[in-house]
């Protein structure tokens, strides 16, 4: 959303610009050569007509020749025609003719004093300067030209950003943006992060206050969190608030083709930042260089050198000068410990997925950028549970696009709701034809989920069910709306969730007497929940509070790895299966007991393609009251 900011107020941190710097020199050389007559013949002006020596002699004898220039290998002469009208310059090969001078001196000419003007000219020796240019400078320049253009095309093919090769420095073009418009107001929610960064802003504003008391600010702060939570955004906002230059570079940009180039780039970066202090250095996706160093052979030399250089630079610079280093990553656990020790990135700022209030705030920030009518913020915020800031920004934009598509002048709540579905489940595929029987199965499947959810008091009510096919391949979509933001989930709630997930398949079995592939996603989710309950949440009787699995990459989907013996793993599988089975059984019972609700809600859905949570609850209440109340 704030992409344009980056382009404004850019100022080049280093004078060596792109382009070819030797044009001036090249032009000079060419001019010098032209003056020396090496490129163009030196008898200026008219065309030179080649002729033979005999003609020359006969023209001399007949008194038409006016001037002669004798050179080493040729003779140039100017002669008029018999009627004396126009002069022509001729060229003829030089012949070893000892009587030529005599002949010329004695000959008549139509010149004023009746004599032929003649002179001899030896081929001029090139000057020392010209020789130098010709034999040394020109080849060098050509070499450099070739080298650079080869480097550029190679670089372009590799899609890299650094310079392929250059002399003296790393060739890094590091930009310091001097005027950043992003402020903390653009970052919604994330109050804790803002608080933590506020101190840095204050320090950059008046370092004197801190120096007076002898306090040094943390040199670096590490922004940690899942993708799209605004890490890059908040780093820019710090620079915008502090109104200082902002050096932004991505970790991957340091990793170069040649060992040592990355390290040189780091050196350059810190040198330039030192000159511009106070300023902010932001290293995005620092895990690209900051990964743990390994002592095994075959480690990445270049990366480790770069990291070492970074560590050295961070130690080396004066903390009171006002250079603050921010870095962002979504894989904090992979970072080298040395980076995290005090004196380097000792401050860690957590950026979590936004909660309900946070999502409302983010919606507000992004809605400011589009024209909109009255929006039910609460509803949209609830519907986007689990979304990151980036996703919400995307949802608002999708809604604006939808408004344009339908020819309206402003975004409505309905646009937003629809775009939530689009972003989460893919766009509607109205053209896709599905058979009536399949449609029916989809309807019962979705209603099955909803019914099981509604009948269990702990489950979140459904906001809306649609059975329009989606581009993601889903044939139906149930939008769950959390009533509030929960941080903790109880065992009972998780079990309800399990039952709800199995509700779709249960409906297929009980009502349609079949099972379909439509439940694959449910199966995946249910298994993940059940497994986590046993292995990580200590929610099974068998394993009590024992950790059976460790979680890596918590911010990137969360891979897990077993930390128990193979026998235990086999046992765990049984326990997980038991839990899922129990939930499935419960779902089947609930659906069998409420078949009439199923039929009515499903036919409503089949007819209208959409059923809201309210309409569904009306049908449910007409038939029965939720159990367990
Ligand atoms: P990250 O670096 O954490 O992956 P970004 O900072 O690049 O995420 O966020 C991408 C976009 O998402 C931002 O440009 C912004 O439009 C939006 N966004 C993310 N978090 C927020 C937030 N807290 N407030 C407002 N917009 C946000
Ligand atoms: Mg980022
Ligand atoms: Zn399902």
From TrEMBL:
<dbReference type="Pfam" id="PF00004">
    <property type="entry name" value="AAA"/>
</dbReference>
<dbReference type="GO" id="GO:0006508">
    <property type="term" value="P:proteolysis"/>
</dbReference>
<dbReference type="Pfam" id="PF01434">
    <property type="entry name" value="Peptidase_M41"/>
</dbReference>
<keyword id="KW-1003">Cell membrane</keyword>
<dbReference type="GO" id="GO:0008270">
    <property type="term" value="F:zinc ion binding"/>
</dbReference>
<dbReference type="Pfam" id="PF17862">
    <property type="entry name" value="AAA_lid_3"/>
</dbReference>
<keyword id="KW-0645">Protease</keyword>
<dbReference type="InterPro" id="IPR011546">
    <property type="entry name" value="Pept_M41_FtsH_extracell"/>
</dbReference>
<dbReference type="InterPro" id="IPR003593">
    <property type="entry name" value="AAA+_ATPase"/>
</dbReference>
<dbReference type="GO" id="GO:0005524">
    <property type="term" value="F:ATP binding"/>
</dbReference>
<dbReference type="GO" id="GO:0004176">
    <property type="term" value="F:ATP-dependent peptidase activity"/>
</dbReference>
<keyword id="KW-0482">Metalloprotease</keyword>
<dbReference type="InterPro" id="IPR003959">
    <property type="entry name" value="ATPase_AAA_core"/>
</dbReference>
<feature type="binding site">
    <location>
        <position position="522"/>
    </location>
    <ligand>
        <name>Zn(2+)</name>
    </ligand>
</feature>
<dbReference type="InterPro" id="IPR000642">
    <property type="entry name" value="Peptidase_M41"/>
</dbReference>
<comment type="similarity">
    <text>In the C-terminal section; belongs to the peptidase M41 family.</text>
</comment>
<feature type="domain" description="AAA+ ATPase">
    <location>
        <begin position="217"/>
        <end position="355"/>
    </location>
</feature>
<keyword id="KW-0067">ATP-binding</keyword>
<dbReference type="GO" id="GO:0030163">
    <property type="term" value="P:protein catabolic process"/>
</dbReference>
<comment type="subunit">
    <text>Homohexamer.</text>
</comment>
<comment type="function">
    <text>Acts as a processive, ATP-dependent zinc metallopeptidase for both cytoplasmic and membrane proteins. Plays a role in the quality control of integral membrane proteins.</text>
</comment>
<keyword id="KW-0812">Transmembrane</keyword>
<feature type="binding site">
    <location>
        <position position="449"/>
    </location>
    <ligand>
        <name>Zn(2+)</name>
    </ligand>
</feature>
<keyword id="KW-0479">Metal-binding</keyword>
<comment type="similarity">
    <text>Belongs to the AAA ATPase family.</text>
</comment>
<keyword id="KW-0378">Hydrolase</keyword>
<keyword id="KW-0547">Nucleotide-binding</keyword>
<keyword id="KW-0862">Zinc</keyword>
<feature type="active site">
    <location>
        <position position="446"/>
    </location>
</feature>
<dbReference type="InterPro" id="IPR003960">
    <property type="entry name" value="ATPase_AAA_CS"/>
</dbReference>
<feature type="binding site">
    <location>
        <begin position="225"/>
        <end position="232"/>
    </location>
    <ligand>
        <name>ATP</name>
    </ligand>
</feature>
<feature type="binding site">
    <location>
        <position position="445"/>
    </location>
    <ligand>
        <name>Zn(2+)</name>
    </ligand>
</feature>
<dbReference type="InterPro" id="IPR041569">
    <property type="entry name" value="AAA_lid_3"/>
</dbReference>
<protein>
    <recommendedName>
        <fullName>ATP-dependent zinc metalloprotease FtsH</fullName>
        <ecNumber>3.4.24.-</ecNumber>
    </recommendedName>
</protein>
<dbReference type="GO" id="GO:0005886">
    <property type="term" value="C:plasma membrane"/>
</dbReference>
<dbReference type="GO" id="GO:0016887">
    <property type="term" value="F:ATP hydrolysis activity"/>
</dbReference>
<dbReference type="InterPro" id="IPR027417">
    <property type="entry name" value="P-loop_NTPase"/>
</dbReference>
<dbReference type="InterPro" id="IPR037219">
    <property type="entry name" value="Peptidase_M41-like"/>
</dbReference>
<keyword id="KW-0472">Membrane</keyword>
<dbReference type="InterPro" id="IPR005936">
    <property type="entry name" value="FtsH"/>
</dbReference>
<dbReference type="GO" id="GO:0004222">
    <property type="term" value="F:metalloendopeptidase activity"/>
</dbReference>
<feature type="transmembrane region" description="Helical">
    <location>
        <begin position="20"/>
        <end position="40"/>
    </location>
</feature>
């Amino acid at each position: 959303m704030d992409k344009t900011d980056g382009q404004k107020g850019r100022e080049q941190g280093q004078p060596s610009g792109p382009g070819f710097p030797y044009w001036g020199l090249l032009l000079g050389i060419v001019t010098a050569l032209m003056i020396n007559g090496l490129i163009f013949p030196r008898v200026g002006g008219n065309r030179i007509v080649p002729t033979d020596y005999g003609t020359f002699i006969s023209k001399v004898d007949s008194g038409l020749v006016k001037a002669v220039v004798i050179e080493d290998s040729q003779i140039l002469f100017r002669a008029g025609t018999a009627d004396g009208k126009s002069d022509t310059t001729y060229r003829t090969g030089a012949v070893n003719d000892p009587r030529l001078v005599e002949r010329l001196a004695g000959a008549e000419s139509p010149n004023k004093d009746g004599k032929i003007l003649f002179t001899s000219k030896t081929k001029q020796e090139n000057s020392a300067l010209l020789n130098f240019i010709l034999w040394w400078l020109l080849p060098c320049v050509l070499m450099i030209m070739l080298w650079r253009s080869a480097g550029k095309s190679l670089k372009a093919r590799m899609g890299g950003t650094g310079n392929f090769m250059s002399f003296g420095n790393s060739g890094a073009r590091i930009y310091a943006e001097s005027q950043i418009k992003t402020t903390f107001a653009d970052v919604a929610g994330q109050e804790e992060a803002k608080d933590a960064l506020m101190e840095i802003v204050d320090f950059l504003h008046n370092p004197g206050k801190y120096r007076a008391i002898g306090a040094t600010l943390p040199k670096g702060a590490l922004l940690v969190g899942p993708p799209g939570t605004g890490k890059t955004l908040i780093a820019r906002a710090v620079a915008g608030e502090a109104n200082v230059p902002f050096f932004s570079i991505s970790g991957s940009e340091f990793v170069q083709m040649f060992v040592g180039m990355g390290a040189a780039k780091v050196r350059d970066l810190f040198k330039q930042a030192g000159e511009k202090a106070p300023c902010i250095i932001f290293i995005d996706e620092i895990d690209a260089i900051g990964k743990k160093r390994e002592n095994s052979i075959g480690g990445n030399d270049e990366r480790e050198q770069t990291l070492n250089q970074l560590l050295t630079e961070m130690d080396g610079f004066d903390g009171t000068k006002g250079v603050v280093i921010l870095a962002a990553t979504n894989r904090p656990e992979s970072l080298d410990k040395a980076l995290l020790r005090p004196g380097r990135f000792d401050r860690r700022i957590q950026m979590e997925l936004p909660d309900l209030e946070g999502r409302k705030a983010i919606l507000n920030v992004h809605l400011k950028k589009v024209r909109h009518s009255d929006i039910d913020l609460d509803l949209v915020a609830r519907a986007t549970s689990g979304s990151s800031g980036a996703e919400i920004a995307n949802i608002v934009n999708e809604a604006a696009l939808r408004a344009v598509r339908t020819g309206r002048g402003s975004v409505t709540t309905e646009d937003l709701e629809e775009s939530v579905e689009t972003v989460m489940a893919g766009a509607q595929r109205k053209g896709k034809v599905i058979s009536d029987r399949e449609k029916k199965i989809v309807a019962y499947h979705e209603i099955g989920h909803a019914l099981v959810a509604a009948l269990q008091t702990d489950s979140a009510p459904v906001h809306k069910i649609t059975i329009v096919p989606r581009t993601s391949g889903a044939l139906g979509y149930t939008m769950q709306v959390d009533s509030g933001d929960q941080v903790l989930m109880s065992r009972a709630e998780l079990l309800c969730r399990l039952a709800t997930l199995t509700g779709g398949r249960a409906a297929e079995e009980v009502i349609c007497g079949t099972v379909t592939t439509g439940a694959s996603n449910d199966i995946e989710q249910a298994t993940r929940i059940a497994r986590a309950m046993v292995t990580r949440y200590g929610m099974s009787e068998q394993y009590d509070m024992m950790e059976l699995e460790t979680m890596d990459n918590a911010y990137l989907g969360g891979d897990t790895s077993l930390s128990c013996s193979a026998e235990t793993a086999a046992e765990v599988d049984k326990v997980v299966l038991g839990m899922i089975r129990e939930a499935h059984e419960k779902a089947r019972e609930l659906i069998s007991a409420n078949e009439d609700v199923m039929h009515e809600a499903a036919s409503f859905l089949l007819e209208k393609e959409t059923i809201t949570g309210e309409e569904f609850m009306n049908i449910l209440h007409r038939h029965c009251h939720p159990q367990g109340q």
